[in-house]
Fold this protein.
Amino acid sequence: MYEILDESLRRAEMNHNITYAILYECVKCIYTIHPKSDLLEKAAKCIGNFVLSPKINLKYLGLKALTYVVQQDPKLALQHQMTIIECLDHPDLIIKRETLELLFRITNDQNVTVIIEKMLDFLRISEDDHTTIDLVGKVAELAEKYAPDNEWFIDTMNTVFSLGGDLLQPDIPNSFLKLLSEGFDSVEEDKKLRLFAVNSYISLLQGDSSKLPQRFLQVICWVLGEYSHLREDLEPDVTVRLLAKLLDMKSSSSETKCWVLMAMTKLCPGGAALALVHNVSETYSSSLDTMLRQRAQELQILSQDSELQAKVLPRSASMEPVEVDSSLSFLDGFVSEALAAGAAPYKPPHQRQEELSRSKALNLEPYGLSLPISMSSCSITDRQSPTLLSISSGLSGDSTDVSHKGSSTVLKLDGVKRLWGRDGYLAQKEPTDEAPRIEAASPVRSANQLGDNNASNSQTPTPTPTPECDQEKQQLASSLFVGLASQSSVCLMGKSDPTFQRFRRKTKASGSSEQITNPLVLPSDGSDNLLYKNLLDSPDLDVSPPEQTPGLAAPNGSCDAEEESTDTDVKEIETPPIRDERVTAQASPHDDPDGSKDPSLTWHLPAELSALSHSNLTPLFSKQNLDVSACHVQKEDSVVLVVFISNCSDSFLQQIRLQVDSEELEVSCVSDCPSEELQSHSVAVCQYFLTVKRPSVDFDLFAAVSWQPPAGSPLTTQFSYRLSLTTFIRALRLSTEEYGAMWLAFSHDTKQNLTLIHDGQDPLAATLDVLKRKLQLHVVEVIGVEAIVACCLQQDQPCLMHCRMHAGMLAVWLRSPVPDLPDCLLYCCQRALQEL
Amino acid sequence: MIKFVLMVNQQGQTRLSKYYEPVELSKRVALEAVAVRCCLSRGKHQCSFVEYKDFKLVYRQYAALYVVVGVTDSENELSIYELIQNFVEVLDKYFSRVSELDIMFNLESVHIILDEMIQNGHIVETNKSRILAPLIAIDKMADG
């Protein structure tokens, strides 16, 4: 390395800036590495050239290099001292600064005064904060190290403080004070030093003290407070007054004021300027600054008690360590008193932390650890089989111990029997056998009640089910889904609204003949009846004034009989009584042409259909000798709408056309009505297959019939027909295994709490029975307090239901692949059960 | 390391600025203004190295344009001084007799050159031909 450096030094004789830069680096390097004398000499020579160069940049560089040099060998600087001196007075501040930097490094006892003087001169003209801070630090350092005598030192420090102002690094005054307090080895020296300090400060304070920087003032206060007693001829009174003057100055910061008060506290004993002290402490004891308040209080108390003051603030032992009783035993009395009075005992921080984490306010425990409780509750929403669910939820309902064993992220399956596998129910015949009994509340029965209550009750299609719900989730679910169900019927209602009013009036006149002919009533509400009036949209109503039939029991009874007879075997037996009953019903005081037609119409049912049970024949309207009525027949897998158009006039009617359609149903014509002409007193029968496109609680069919009387223009009339969902529901016979498999596969589900029918020993059975009857659901199995039920909407749209008796309610969970089906079906169940 | 490079004209308008350490945009403007004022107020016979706050500014005047480089204390000021000279010579070579307008209208080329020379606050290339090689290649592609 030395060779290289040597070489570089030699080569760099060219007159180029960059060579100089290189030389500089070389020199820097030489003086940084292990010294080698001839290299050092060569480098020094080089530097000398730099400094002497007229080019100012080189000069700068030279000076900078010299700082390295003199650290090693101060003598080398001597050669160039004249240059350096010149540089000191150089007009360029940068050069000056650099020189000062250099001088800083060559300071010793002899030249310290001069150097510091130069530095202070520079400080006075310097405007740059950085420079100031820098230099002030340097001066302080030098002064401390090389101070020739006390006075000079104090003077210098004073200058430093006043020049440095508040930009001083805090350690400068601190170290100064420390120096003063620690002092030198000789006590005499100490005393002299302090005395001098005191003297100078007194004179300063007596002069104009408003321009002194805060730090300086603080230093003054401290010194005076501590050491003014050293000056015998100085009355503490005077000092206190001087200090008080400081307090009144506006420029004093509150920090300074604190220092002042402290100093006054120290000066107090001996009754110095009591009145003044008193005044001051009064003023400041109500100050908003807590530090000031504290000091003022101290002043007040200690000024009155000189003994205490002597103990607290010993005059000459300020540097001795104070012994502190860290257990604060003197407060023991106070503490025990407080505890006796009922105060809470002290809680160490770690205990406080524990309690905080335990409190309910904020659970800071990470989720992974507190899983078990939440697991069992959210397992409800998982696609688990109902039996597993019920068992686990039973567990959670019963015991609070579900959360046992803390941190497991896996479901606790001990004690849970494995019943359901991937493929469905695992054939471990365990307590999962109970007679499935589902009660289908017949919508007809509901219609009964509705019929009874007419339009008054249940206008609100939302029988809000349960006042009490144990699980909040169920509550939420119920409130949500109730709203849903009501939605559908509301809008259905809405459609009929415009015609509502008109027929209201009619009802009063035309009583309840329409009521009689409630077939499978709209399970919605009593306004069903009014709806049927809508069907009679022609103002000239030929229907004879209806009267209250002897209760609606009769047709309902017939309906019941119908509903019971879902089994095809029984149908034929049923139909005659139906007819008879209907006849009886209608053989009430009015001579209803429909009534007389009725039996004849049913005779007109096509052969295959007549074998099946069918709904009541609804007279749809009757106008100008044309009567239209309809009924629907439930077959195994479909529903057939049969429309009878009977010509009760004496002339034939031509061009009969019938068109039926619906939004949610798909209507396909099986046999159309004859379109040429309808003979008098003959009946045309039209059949339509109805299939559900989209499930809904009630389905509306809109139809239009047009015909042409012999002498007249073509007429068209529209009517509507309503069917409920229950018409389309069929029982779905499944085995439990199949049920299990299907359950897991379906995605749309609904949950609700329904009312239980609490008659007899077995409320579950009774409820299921009602549902079964009314809704044609098939109970697959009854297991203890639970039952599984299946049904299907037409051929391919099954819906599975899981019921559980719980806290006096029937918790029902439906699942189906069809989106709206669970909701609608649930609604039907709800209505069915409510209308009992 | 080099903290920033500025090219400022005598009216105080910054023609180019490149920072090698993150400085907030608002502070940049202030910094540039102060730096320029420092340099403008200095005479010809004064040192080119200005101590500013806790770092140094090395500046050089070329006609109406000042090139100011801010460096930390560890840098050799004279070498930075020469770097500025080198940079201007490269610009001169590329633009053939560079003027302030050239810099204004071909700022991207100037930036490319500067990037070739200084990266991450340190000098990486000083050879003129090597610095200009990529730029010339780009120009050839643009033309051809």
